[in-house]
């Protein structure tokens, strides 16, 4: 059930950090937390998803953001996290409330049990009147195992907490129908179908890891759970409330009127692809009719090094994504079973087991409001060569 008084605010590095000196933007942070204090007095529950730790840490290390590699950014995050949180804590104290840091990794959001544990932690902080500040734990994540942008991370938090609104504060005033620097670019006030704007959202800022593309992807994730997303410019004066009241323009990505269940939202809105399977055409049709799950004999190719309990993306022979579901097997077992479909599973694996890779009850058919993922081209394992 969506909570009307719960709001997730995402703030990008370009607003929190002085780009020239890589130091905290104190004036903006004062405006931000002053606004949050006002919202809290109105009875709103606010969660902040904050970037900035890596950028601040690069300043402390004397590193150039344009050339810093993964290890340099991990070290920078370790330096920058206490710097950023110290600023937040000092300013929040002036406004009479306390903060808490919640550092998460990709697995905390993609693994169902850890997802629920993270939710419980944030909910307990809200119950105690403390502002949770969520960020990815960049000190331990690498390119292969990271969310990569705080826009989609914020959308995951909004889904997790069943928030009614996600506010993404950035350095421009919202979405345009093309690059806003181009002549004739038109501001987009309202978005129902995020997919219509994906091709015009490809650039990123110098400090941040996400551009308008990740904001549109985040908005789609929020829409699916019944959460409206507002994308607007983070001004020092009333950065949140001026957008919420409509005094400062923003792009509104409208929530789905009939949102998916929390289970369906978690299963379909992924941050990273653990693995995928391509199924035969007859099986694809049966899956879409909701007649079957995914059996080992239906599989043509597998991709990815996945584990039991991971969510797999399911494609038809033409490369269209049709569904996502929880796998009963890791990639090694699934490859063995799919490669030798005529041999009993007990002989292939050495123990009694079902040939069903994904149970029908753990499989969700993708609908029009879900953004499909392109089928991966690398590391495909063709099981037909063993037949």
UniProtKB/TrEMBL annotation:
Secretion signal span: none
Residue ranges occupied by any PUA domain in the UniProt entry: 275-352
Record pathway: Amino-acid biosynthesis; L-proline biosynthesis; L-glutamate 5-semialdehyde from L-glutamate: step 1/2
Catalysed reaction equations from the record: L-glutamate + ATP = L-glutamyl 5-phosphate + ADP
Enzyme class, broadest EC rank: transferase
EC number: 2.7.2.11
Principal cellular location given in the protein's record: cytoplasm
Keywords: Amino-acid biosynthesis, ATP-binding, Cytoplasm, Kinase, Nucleotide-binding, Proline biosynthesis, Transferase
GO molecular function: glutamate 5-kinase activity
Gene3D superfamilies associated with the record: Acetylglutamate kinase-like, PUA domain
Localization of this protein: Cytoplasm
Transmembrane segments: none
Its job: Catalyzes the transfer of a phosphate group to glutamate to form L-glutamate 5-phosphate.
NCBIfam families: proB (TIGR01027)
Listed HAMAP family: ProB
Family according to the record: Belongs to the glutamate 5-kinase family.
Stated name of the protein: Glutamate 5-kinase
């Amino acid at each position: 059930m969506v909570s009307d008084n719960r709001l997730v605010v995402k703030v990008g590095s370009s607003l929190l950090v002085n780009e020239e000196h890589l130091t905290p933007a104190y004036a903006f942070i004062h405006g931000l937390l002053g606004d949050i204090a006002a919202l809290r007095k109105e009875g709103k529950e606010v969660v902040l998803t904050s970037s900035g730790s890596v950028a601040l840490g690069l300043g402390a290390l004397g590193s150039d953001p344009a050339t810093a590699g993964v290890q340099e950014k991990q070290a920078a995050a370790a330096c920058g996290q206490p710097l950023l949180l110290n600023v937040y804590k000092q300013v929040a104290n002036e406004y009479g409330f306390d903060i808490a840091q919640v550092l998460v990794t990709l697995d905390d959001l993609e693994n169902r049990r850890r997802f629920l544990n993270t939710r419980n932690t944030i909910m307990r902080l809200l119950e105690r009147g403390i502002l949770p500040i969520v960020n990815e734990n960049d000190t331990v994540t690498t390119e292969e195992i990271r969310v990569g942008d705080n826009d989609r991370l914020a959308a995951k938090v909004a889904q997790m907490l069943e928030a009614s609104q996600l506010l993404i504060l950035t350095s421009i005033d919202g979405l345009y129908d093309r690059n806003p620097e181009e002549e004739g670019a038109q501001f987009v006030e309202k978005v129902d179908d995020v997919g219509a704007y994906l091709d015009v959202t490809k650039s990123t800022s110098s400090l941040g890891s996400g551009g308008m593309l990740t904001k549109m992807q985040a908005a789609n994730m929020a829409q699916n759970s019944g959460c409206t997303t507002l994308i607007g410019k983070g001004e020092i004066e009333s950065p949140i409330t001026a957008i919420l009241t409509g005094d400062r323009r923003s792009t509104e990505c409208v929530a789905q009127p009939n949102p998916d269940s929390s289970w369906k939202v978690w299963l379909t809105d992924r941050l990273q692809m653990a693995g995928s399977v391509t199924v035969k055409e007859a099986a694809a049709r049966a899956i879409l009719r909701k007649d079957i799950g995914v059996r080992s004999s239906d599989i043509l190719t597998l991709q990815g090094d996945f584990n039991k309990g991971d969510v797999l993306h399911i494609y038809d022979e033409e490369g269209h994504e049709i569904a996502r579901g929880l796998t009963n097997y890791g990639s090694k077992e699934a490859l063995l079973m799919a490669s030798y479909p005529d041999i009993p599973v007990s002989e292939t694996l050495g123990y009694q087991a079902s040939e069903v890779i994904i149970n029908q009850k753990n499989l969700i058919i993708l609908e029009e409001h879900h953004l499909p993922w392109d089928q991966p081209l690398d590391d495909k394992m063709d099981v037909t060569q063993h037949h």
